[in-house]
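*** Query protein ***
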Amino acid sequence: MATASAEIEEAPAHGSAQPKSSKRTLVLGLVAAVAVAAGCIWYVTHHGLENTDNAQIDGDVVSVPARVGGVVTKIEFVENQRVKAGDLLAELDSAPAQARLAEAAANVLAAQAQADAADATARVSETTAVGDKSIADASLITASVGAASTTDQIKEAAAQLQSAQTSLQQARLDHDRAQSLLTSGAISKAEYDRTDTGYRVAQSSVDVASARLTSIKSSAAQAQSRVVEAQAKAKSSNDVETQIKLANARAKAAHAQVETATAARNLAALDLSYTEIFAPSDGVVSKKSINVGQMLSPGQSVVQIVPDKLWVTGNFKETQVAKMRVGQAASVEVDAFSGKPIEGEVESFSGATGAKFTLLPPDNATGNFTKVVQRLPVRIRLHEIPAGIALRPGMSVDLTVDTRK
């Protein structure tokens, strides 16, 4: 009886445990179902989205240099000032550059004067060369005619000498015959004197003809010398074209000096313009490194300017970029402006992983190689930046790329 009553008392206890176990199983099932549903929703909404927090705002940082050396006389900007392209940033002492420009301008004038003189000399040389050739040719003709004339005169004088010598021989015979007749008394003394006078005259005629022949031969030698001299002058003046080319070459060299001096003057003018330093683009100037009175050398940095054009560089793991393509949508959330996403798109991929651009790139050809997932820089073009967000290169961002499209 006691046993039966115990069994009757235990029966309600087993009946109450079954509903509690079923409720717990139902709760666990519901939780599992919610988790699976949430997982499915997360997978559907996040599948194909590649995210990285290894990203930052990027932009060019341009060093504005002094293109010439000089002492700083004026500074027209303050640290972190926004400037426009062409705004004056600083001025250097321009007096030395102005002096060099004046010297270069004077050199141009001197070179131009020399070029003008060379042109005039070339024209005179051309005229002189042509005239000298004409004179030399005429002199040669005159000398040749004179030489030919003396040749005829020599022949004539020789003939006259021969005639005088013949007359002298006849006069000598007449003189000897008259002397014999005078001795014999056949002729008078007067007749003998006439014969003697004729003989002396004939002898004088021979002397005169001989002297004339000698004189004409001397003139012929001189005429021949003049012919040789005229031939030499004609030969030297024949190359008129070469002389003209030489004069023109000198003129061209003088004009080349003008161009050289002009280039030097232009460089001096550039150096003068470089004493004023202007902003190369719109942006913000920072890291000022000059003061009034400071001596600058060519190439020395004046200030750093950050242009307005910005982009995002995201360093994705190499396992994340397989489906990335140029033009895919991207979402950027800047850490400094949380909750204000900025839309953009993939613009380009780096030519190599970031490690390859380091000062000492890794060399995996070693015995203790450990595989490390590399990161590839991806450039993101930003679309429209919301108002109130001031981006600066170097700011950290959270970057997501949608690879489903």
In short: The two ends are 80 Å apart (CA to CA).
